[in-house]
């Protein structure tokens, strides 16, 4: 049951097999490791030999869910069938690791997790001009666990004011959803970041003991008014998680 140098001669070749670089891999260790990493469920393999070429340890890193005993049997069978190498199963150790996913799958999973944590949903934004004035109204509808609330705010018809008016309406709708008066808009503005326009808002969350400034951002895509509402939701998402109805 013990591997010995008879399986790999001094030239680095196995009887009946091809040759390898005797200087860099005198006992064919890399050949064995490459074989083992080709097995299903094996992420990496390390073969440790004595100065005489005898295998003293084999360490296997396997994917989660693999049966360690089955992995050991697969390693034994592969070495014997492909390299004529018989190894005592007690020299083979198997360590499972967490499930490995492609980066794209991890990114999609992160997006799904973030969406699942979003407490308040943005349903609608309606802008209207006030007749015979240079003012506008912004009506924002938000939803919380199937219940919707709409708040309307009025402001001057300028780019900066339209953005702030939409943000104020979003803050008011949030207060109605949670039945609190603890939120107020500190300010809203559009800023240039990395050659893109981004809406940035500050929302003050007050309590009996103190007040905190919550800052949120959202890239301007559809309009600065829509981005302002999304920025309010970004700023208050953690607050909403902490205050959601139980």
Report the top-level CATH class of the largest domain: Alpha Beta
Query: Based on CA inertia axes, which overall geometry fits?
Result: elongated
Query: Roughly how much helix do the residues carry, as a percent range?
Result: 25-40%
List the total number of helices. 5
Q: Which residue ranges are poorly predicted, with pLDDT under 50 across at least 5 consecutive positions? A: 1-22
Determine the CATH superfamily of the largest domain. Alpha-isopropylmalate synthase LeuA, regulatory domain
Describe the structure.
The structure is a single chain. This protein is α+β, with helices and mostly antiparallel strands and 246 residues long. It has 2 domains: 5-97, GMP Synthetase, Chain A, domain 3 (2-Layer Sandwich), CATH 3.30.300; 116-243, Alpha-isopropylmalate synthase LeuA, regulatory domain (Double Stranded RNA Binding Domain), CATH 3.30.160. It contains 5 helices and 9 strands. It has helices spanning 29-37, 68-83, 103-117, 159-178, 224-243; strands at residues 42-49, 55-63, 92-97, 120-129, 135-144, 147-156, 183-193, 196-206, 211-219. The strands form 3 sheets. It has a 3-stranded mixed β-sheet with strand order 1-2-3. A 3-stranded antiparallel β-sheet has the order 4-5-6, with helices on one face. Strands 7-8-9 form a 3-stranded antiparallel β-sheet. Helix 4 (159-178) packs parallel to helix 5 (224-243). The longest helix has 20 residues, at 159-178. It is elongated, with a radius of gyration of 32 Å.
């Amino acid at each position: 049951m013990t591997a010995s140098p008879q399986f790999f001669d001094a030239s680095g070749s196995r009887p009946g097999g091809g040759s390898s670089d005797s200087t860099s891999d005198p006992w064919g260790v890399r050949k064995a490791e490459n074989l083992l990493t080709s097995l299903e469920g094996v992420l990496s393999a390390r073969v440790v030999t004595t100065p005489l070429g005898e295998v003293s340890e084999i360490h296997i890193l396997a994917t989660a869910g693999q049966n360690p005993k089955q992995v050991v049997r697969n390693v034994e069978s592969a070495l014997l069938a492909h390299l004529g190498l018989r190894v005592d199963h007690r020299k083979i150790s198997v360590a499972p690791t967490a499930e490995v996913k492609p980066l794209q799958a991890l990114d999609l999973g992160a997006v799904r997790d973030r969406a699942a944590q979003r407490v308040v949903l943005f349903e609608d934004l309606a802008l209207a001009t006030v007749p015979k004035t240079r003012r506008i109204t912004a009506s924002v509808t938000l939803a919380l666990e199937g219940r919707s609330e709409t708040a309307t705010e009025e402001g001057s018809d300028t780019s900066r004011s339209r953005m702030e008016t939409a943000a104020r309406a979003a803050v008011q709708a949030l207060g109605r959803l949670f039945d609190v008066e603890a939120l107020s808009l500190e300010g809203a503005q559009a800023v240039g970041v990395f050659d893109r326009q981004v809406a940035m808002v500050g929302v003050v969350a007050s309590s009996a003991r103190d007040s905190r400034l919550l800052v949120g951002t959202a890239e301007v895509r559809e309009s600065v008014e829509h981005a302002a509402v999304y920025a309010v939701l970004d700023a208050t998402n953690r607050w909403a998680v902490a205050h959601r109805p139980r």
